[in-house]
Write a structure and sequence with these properties.
single chain, alpha/beta, six-stranded mixed β-sheet
Length: 774
């Protein structure tokens, strides 16, 4: 008899016993009364649950269809290594269905079809207590794993908008599309602060700055959860990954992280504090170890810091199979039972994913190593989530409404606006852009990302062609006066051939303009071909394959050349930066990305995005961040420039902006005082445009070393050609706080420098000193 069969039989027996004991109870169904307070409903239900039913709420499984598909593609050994596909070798999908009916599973992920979601919920309604399932999905930038959904730009592009209002709006829309397809919990925002471009997951972060990551994360949480209401969630957001896996020792996902507590608290923890303050209701721990302790067994981070220090009240979920890896990868547990003990003792509430959790936890309670009261803590949080989501009242989705919500006109418009604001113009030599929309140009276009779904980025399913605007699609739609000669070199960046390169040079020479679209491939549906995204770390962050040769061949044709980068991580493209007249960082701009790019090329949209991560010259230039310490560049590299290729906060438009008359309301600030900083910004160009005004501060002399500058505030403004606006910022004492030698927050008397401008580059900043006095 299999272990799963044992679980099912034990569960059935416990259900029969408990059912009898509550047979004559008058209040056993009070938890179904939506008029009762959530806390009362939780306690009423909890009292009626067996230990098995309680632990089952902590168990998550992959969806039935996902399981069936994975079975075709993966061996048991492959599954153990995979972070994307899962199935259970000793467990048939029909066994999973029976477990749902018996109340032995509390959650599912990778359910991407509303019919499957409804079917699973219908099975849960057959269980004794009718507890609905919590269905989660990786809706990282829209619920893009669902066929037909709206795909917004990936988070690194969203951050490049510097527009938190827009991010909140599209998160509200994402929540609507999630609920319309059966999901009520998303594993986002990713609050990892990205400081290593080798790491494949940079594209699903908001960049390298703790303040901007915090602000974008909060906007996403508020939009997803509807935190304006204390009693109700649209969906549940999940802040991840606890913590600092974005700065692993070798840039690889899941590799060890070894950082000082100062770096953790100054760089990596602030976004989580902001998320907790915003009411985020779930957290996810990280694949990696932190300073020798696997994050899934890190009681200091999960319990001491998140719960006791920061006041987190929601639930914590493991990442994909990482509880198992305490025994199989980290070797801090001798077996799965010990792994389960360590993670729950540390503060874990839910296991992602599979059958190897229910029985070990039951055994641990029966043996007295874990108390049932500790299990109750986790289950209370999980039940509260389901009540606040309204799942007990409405577990099913009206399938007739689904198609009216997915990719509707309003969501398309938001996706287009987000794409327009996320695309960064890095170089525009001799004002080659914008192109004359009425001029009949012969345009040559090529590159592996010119006409495919690379614009969708990671965490997206392959979408129908009528729901994706590729770069070539966008050119045809907007630049209707032009003739296009498209050379198809395939969609895999590593499959460009010498024959392609020779042909590109020849055909480009006959054109008036050449556009080369290069970058990376984040296709989850071609997992083995990816060069970017989850588990796609790189030792070399240049253009993969022969893409650099392709760009050079087109450039040396003599035809004016535009390079468009479609990618989820910063790429080292120094030769292109030195030679090609126009460079555009499109990131992965989503469903409407091609149209948005074409609108920028032809001047219908004035680009306004700013980088939220520094672009290094090579992988050897890492760590390349703007908020470095004073001695970071004390000595220079002897074979290349030491500075980044493009700095944090940088981005061009078709207008130039002049900063002048920087003033402070007074020259000093005290503990309970504020300074008002004002600066005049003028659009000195010919086009109306948006500018992102950025405020940085520096502590001149301090008892511990401080960054050369830190972003403290920013404002996105619109200016007509020739218009001047005065922009104001309040400088408050909390902006001056730092961690002293004992890691305690403090402010020291002394001189500070305020810097304001259009990027973090020194030459783009005006500066003014002020003093802090007690």
């Amino acid at each position: 008899m299999s272990k799963i069969s044992d679980y099912i039989k034990v569960g059935l027996l416990a259900l029969l016993v408990t059912s009898c004991s509550f047979q004559n109870s008058e209040d056993k169904a009070l938890y179904l009364n939506s008029e009762m307070a959530v806390e009362e409903r939780v306690e009423n239900l909890l009292q009626q649950m067996t230990l098995e039913e309680k632990v089952a709420q902590m168990c998550q499984f992959v969806g039935l269809e996902h399981m069936k598909q994975a079975e075709k593609n993966l061996s048991k050994e492959d599954m153990e290594k995979s972070d994307a596909q899962g199935f259970y070798p000793d467990l048939h999908s029909t066994d999973v269905e029976k477990m749902v009916e018996q109340g032995l599973i509390g959650s599912f992920l990778h359910v991407t079809d509303v019919k499957e979601a409804n079917y699973l919920q219908s099975l849960a309604q057959k269980s004794r207590l009718k507890i609905p399932l919590l269905i989660g999905i990786d809706a990282i930038h829209g619920t893009a794993l669902v066929q037909g959904a709206t795909v917004y730009p990936t988070p690194i592009g969203l951050a490049s908008t510097w527009d938190t209002t827009l991010v909140k709006k599209l998160s509200v829309e994402t929540a609507k599309e999630m609920r319309a397809t059966g999901a009520a919990w998303t594993f986002t925002p990713n609050l990892d602060v990205a400081r290593d471009a080798r790491w494949g997951r940079v594209g699903e972060t908001f960049g390298e700055d703790p303040l901007l990551v915090s602000d974008m994360g909060v906007a996403m949480i508020e939009g997803l959860q509807n935190t304006d209401s204390d009693a109700y969630f649209n969906v549940i957001a999940c802040a991840k990954h606890l913590i600092a896996g974005s700065e692993s020792v070798n840039g690889l996902n899941g590799a060890p992280t070894d950082l000082s507590e100062r770096t953790i608290r100054e760089i990596y923890l602030p976004p989580y504090k902001a998320a907790v303050d915003a009411g985020v209701f779930s957290l996810m721990t990280a694949h990696n170890e932190l300073n020798g302790v696997p994050c899934h067994a890190d009681k200091w981070m999960m319990t001491d810091v998140m719960r006791e220090e920061l006041g987190f009240e929601g639930f914590i979920v493991s990442d994909w199979m990482d509880i198992e890896r305490l025994a199989t990868r980290h070797f801090v547990a001798e077996d799965q039972t010990e792994a389960c003990y360590q993670t729950i003792d540390a503060g874990m509430d839910m296991h992602m994913h599979g059958p190897e959790f229910l029985q070990p936890v039951i055994d641990l309670v029966n043996e007295g190593r874990l108390t049932e009261e500790r299990i109750d803590e986790s289950v209370r949080r999980l039940l509260e989530a389901k009540f606040r989501l309204g799942l007990f009242e409405n577990p099913m989705v009206d399938e007739t409404v689904t198609e009216t919500i997915l990719f509707n006109a309003e969501h398309q418009a938001t996706a287009l606006e987000a794409a327009q604001k996320s695309i960064v113009l890095l170089k525009n030599e001799d004002e080659l852009l914008p192109l004359n929309i009425s001029k009949k140009l012969n345009v040559f276009i090529t590159g592996p990302n010119a006409n495919n779904e690379s614009v969708l980025g990671d965490w997206s399913a392959q979408q129908a062609s009528d729901k994706v605007s590729t770069i070539l699609d966008g050119l045809h739609e907007i630049g209707t006066s032009c003739n296009y000669d498209y050379l198809d070199v395939g969609h895999n960046p590593r499959h460009v051939t010498k024959a392609h390169i020779k042909q590109a040079n020849k055909r480009a020479s006959k054109a008036d303009l050449a556009i080369v679209v290069v970058g990376e491939n984040s296709f989850r549906w071609e997992w083995d071909q990816k060069t970017c995204g989850e588990n796609s770390g790189r030792s070399d962050i240049g253009l993969a394959g022969l893409q650099q040769d392709l760009v050079e061949a087109v450039y040396y044709s003599g035809t004016p050349t535009i390079v468009v980068l479609v990618n989820g991580r910063p790429l080292a493209t120094e030769w292109i930066a030195d030679n090609v007249p126009v460079i555009i960082e499109a990131w992965e701009p989503g469903s409407m990305g091609g149209k948005a790019l074409a609108q920028i090329l032809f001047g219908e949209v004035n680009p306004s995005a700013k980088l939220t991560i520094s672009i290094p010259r090579s992988s050897g230039h890492l760590l390349s961040v703007y908020n470095h310490k004073p001695t970071h560049y004390f000595h220079k590299y002897v074979t290349s420039k030491s500075t980044p290729l493009y700095e944090f906060g940088y981005g061009l438009g078709y207008s130039d902006f002049n900063y002048q008359n920087l003033q402070l309301s007074k020259q000093s600030i005290g503990k309970k005082e504020k300074l008002l900083l004002k600066v005049e910004v003028t659009n000195i160009g010919k086009y109306d445009g948006d500018e992102v005004v950025q405020l940085y501060l520096n502590d001149k002399i301090c008892s511990v070393t401080r960054p050369v500058k830190e972003l403290k505030a920013y404002r996105r403004i619109s200016l007509k050609a020739g218009e001047t606006k005065q922009v104001s910022f309040e400088i408050t004492p909390d902006m001056l706080v730092f961690l002293d030698k004992q890691l305690k927050p403090t402010i020291e008397e002394g001189v500070f420098k305020a810097m304001v401008g259009g990027s973090s580059r020194d030459k783009d900043l005006l500066s003014i000193p002020f003093t802090y006095v007690e």
